[in-house]
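hey so i finally got around to running both of the ones u sent me last week. sorry it took forever, my laptop kept dying halfway thru and i had to restart like 3 times lol. anyway pasting them below in the order u listed, first the sequence line then the structure token line for each. didnt double check formatting much so if smth looks off just lmk and ill redo it

first one:
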Amino acid sequence: MVGLKEELLKSIWHAFTALDLDRSGKVSKSQLKASGGRPAGGVLSHNLCTVLNVPHDPVALEEHFRDDDEGPVSNQGYMPYLNKFILEKVQGNFDKVEFNRMCWTLCAKKNLSKSPLLISDEDAFKVWVIFNFLSEDKYPLIIVPEEIEYLLKKITEAMGAGWQQEQFDHYKVALNTSREGLSAWELIELIGSGQFSKGMDRQTVSMAISEVFNELILDVLKQGYMLKKGHKRKNWMERWFVLKPNIISYYVSEDLKEKKGDIILDGNCCVEALPDKDGKKCLFLIKCLDKTFEISASDKKKKQEWIQAIQSTVSLLRAGSAPPHKEARQKRKELRQKLQAEQEELERQMRELQAANENKQKELETVRKQLEAAAARAAEEEKKRLQTQLELQDRFSLELEREKMVRQKMEEQVAQKSSELEQYLQRVRELEEMYKQLQEALEDEKQARQDEETVRKLQARLLEEETAKRAELEKWHLQQQQTIQMTEAEKQELENQRMMKEQALQVAMEQLKQLELERKEALEQYEEVKKKLETAAKNTKSWKDKVAHHEGLIRLIEPGSKNPHLITNWGPAAFTEAELEERQRSWKGKKATST
């Protein structure tokens, strides 16, 4: 309903702005309300209620436009009434063409150009309605160059002519330099002037405008003559078919005066081609929920075009999308808004850059002035420095001359003193040489005495060491003889012990072999006894089973072991514990005897 309200407001805006103004520049109250003396063309409010099928409320109208001290009613005062009492009650069950024609009647006479046009008043009306559809949603209403190009292209294509892009580019450049777009009356004058339809007659231009009007305003997606098969008589009749976004209407002829029926389209409908039959060609079928329609096109091309158009319409209904021309208009509008937003952002950035550039220019100018002032101060200081340098050079020149004279005198004195010093140094060197020779002689004598003393001390120390070593060697010799005697006795004793241990070991080995043989014999005896016990156990078990089977459960008394058995790593021992202790005592006695 928001889109419908915007479309209605555009046409009403044209009618409202065309009303007569009073001396204060505002619309007279008598032209807005339903009073007795309404002007030619009808009162605006009354006519709107009539064509929009809205109940008219004279009391609410009179209350809203009550006289007050502010005088006649203004645009701002009429719009609240229009929204509250008329537009909010619109249900969509009205004739859009009749509504637009009423608004056109109120505004055309005052605004339409008096110069002769190549289009009729009816074509001008259609162009005016198309303008309201394509214009921007801001007032005063204008159509931007992009939409003008779109409309002129559609009209040119409908006429079957070629589009002159270069010609429109020149026109667009001239238009952009003066304004943002055209008003409705300027658009009618542009199309009526024939500037973009040269070489075309009035009838061709009129048919092209009507075709574009049917597509954009009446939502006619396709129209044309085809044959339809009747549901009752089954006869074929020629009908004029008009395809809209949710309906296919068929009429007796293309003047649309006598309607024969409608085919309601929804997402469940489908269309499919049929083979030729009953002498009819180019057949296709439209299936709806309640009915099925057989249609015959004039040729295969028309048949394919109608099938594709109906399939596209059903697909849009399933997707819940708007008609192609409305969706395309919305996309163009969104693209323009996006470009406008980008342009505004670019302009904002340019303004920021320009402001930043101006600030930088000011800063550079300030820096330049500071540099100029600094350069002037530096030049002045350089001038003072050069003057001071010249004065210092003159002073240094005089002092340098005096220094040269003083240095010359000093050099003469130095030369004389140098000669005397050289003679003195020569005498000192001779004395130093004599002193060195005396020092060397004294050092030689002192070294000779030290060497003699060292040799004497060394001889005395050697004699003492030789005496000590001789005494130590004699002591070691005595100790060695004693050690040899003791070692011989211990060796004899150890040899006797070793012989005794070897004999004891041989005896133990023989006893171990004897024990091993006895153990093997015991194991063999144990295996034989074990086998006998297993045989006896099996026989006893079978006997017990037989007795238990025949006489019931019987508990047998069996003999137990007299002595506890010994268990070894190889199994049950072959000897009792008493026998093993006796053998152990015998072995210990033999061992004690051998030792």
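and the second one:
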Amino acid sequence: QPVAAGSGIPEIKCYLNGVKVPGVVRLRTVVCKAMGVLFSVAGGLFVGKEGPMIHSGAVVGAGLPQFQSISLRKIQFNFPYFRSDRDKRDFVSAGAAAGVAAAFGAPIGGTLFSLEEGSSFWNQGLTWKVLFCSMAATFTLNFFRSGIQFGSWGSFQLPGLLNFGEFKCSESDKKCHLWTAVDLGFFILMGIVGGLLGATFNCLNKRLAKYRMRNVHPKPKLVRVLESLLVSLTTTVVVFVASMVLGECRQMPSTSHSGNDTLDLQGMSEDVNSSIKTFFCPNETYNDMATLFFNPQESAILQLFHQDGTFSPVTLSLFFLLYFLLSCWTYGISVPSGLFVPSLLCGAAFGRLVANLLKSYIGLDHIYSGTFALIGAAAFLGGVVRMTISLTVILIESTNEITYGLPIMITLMVAKWTGDFFNKGIYDIHVNLRGVPLLEWETEVEMDKLRASDIMEPNLTYVYPHTRIQSLVSILRTTVHHAFPVVTENRGNEREFMKGNQLISNNIKFKKSSILTRAGEQRKRSQSMKSYPSSELRNMCDEHIATEEPPEKEDLLQQMLERRYTPYPNLYPDQSPSEEWTMEERFRPLTFHGLILRSQLVTLLVRGVCYSENQSSASQPRLSHAEMSEDYPRYPDIHDLDLTLLNPRMIVDVTPYMNPSPFTVSPNTHVSQVFNLFRTMGLRHLPVVNAVGEIVGIITRHNLTHEFLQARLRQHYRTI
């Protein structure tokens, strides 16, 4: 299951943004993810397990409410609820939040992570559901870890997989403060440096990812295995050589405390000091480099946060450099790997180095080294992933120290602004490398120079309310669209309602020359791009009326109101829209009636929902909503359909199953309004309908991507 490689956060971000990544929420994926991250972390690679936990939680959220799995076909439950993409997306949001909550013991941070980094479509009702799910995940993990590790079931002593411990100065040191207002200046500088380091990390990792896409992924799968073995071998050699050659033997810190120290601080100190490594050093000394390299990453972070002894600046500098390069190389190989903990450890070494330099060379004895290590971790992680609100809350909940809220928030904001000046966050970079059409939160201001007519696709593939089976099969087999407009041709209607030069409707007068048609839009584009012969353009687009007919005495508005309730015409042409049509045929006026999905059309064909030509459409069998959604989420494919069981001359009435009132926009709608409607409502297709009810184009996710809008804007400037 190749999609199980990496952290999984970019894939989940794409899924929650509305892009269905194949296999990302499969049962096989979560099994491979869990087993792979178990061995990659235990094997000593510089990877974390927090990212894969978020992915695993999302898979559980997607699969559990379905009560079925494609990997376990024999397990089937008749559970008719939550059978839509919107419900599934909400459960994936809750699962991702639960993964964050279990990893860091931060239920509120998990909820904000799902809101900030993942979900595109959010509502008030989803907030408390996701928070409750995160709380349940946190306390479930706490219950089992406390019972297994301490044997005291129900004590709830271990809130998450990663806990930063308690930050507290020794009561014997009266000069010590967790942080002061003077330290905020240093925190801002650390945020700037963290943003620069994060941008450098992302740039190097992007180049490595491009190299892998060109030279590793196209080759046999064995090459990926060999690359992972090479990274593992290099990591092992570097860790051993660096600890033996570059490590310093330092005096073992004393475990005795004054009577004023609290028992919690004593316990924390003894726990941290018990994890130091001697590694070929004499008695009563320890190897500072080996203490950082040969401990689990969580223990190494606690060493940098709470170690009584000091790490030399040289050791911290070398450790930071080696860990930076190796973690950058490791992230992206074909193993499940997270980035949170390696970034925290790398940043903690940077922060501890700053604290040592300030103490040794500037003489600031009041500073608390653990605070600077925490701020350094936040600065580097913020510079890599570019998260602000959720990361602040996660770090506050992990430290159980609310007073760190202000410095962490300031540091993360500065790191994000600094990094954004150079490149995007690591997850956005990997999303772009995969070519996923991810929609941002909003468009740029200059995009409002474009209208919906500038970005829509006017060349439509459509179906009629009553269409022959041979036409439906032809359309479905020759296109890959997931929805089709249901239309009727309205040349007769146009002659009736476009008498003279005006259309009167609800006391509003529309000039016919101002009503956009698909043919007129295509003419405008063709002339600007010079892609069609002028003779063809004249045949296609000359729609003006040469002689103005005298207005009729009848009330045109009354005619429209009467026609509004007439049944759909019984149209079943023998030919479907094709590329062989002339421009005039392809861009004929079409009255829009609704949208129907590909999955619905295939389901109707598979179940034989049709009627013969000599019968009424009322004789057509009717399917309930439960029957239409029975195959969700894996509907049958049109290419697997046995055509010998179908009579191609039979007719399908699609009107009972189409969406008769989808969201639509006017051709003159600003792009920013189109974008906000598309994103906030979670749409996949947005028809563009003019003032007389004709569909003139359709907008999909592809038409709203940043690259497409930029190309349209450049074309707009050239035509001005």
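quick thing i noticed on the 2nd:
The radius of gyration is 32 Å.
anyway thats it, ttyl
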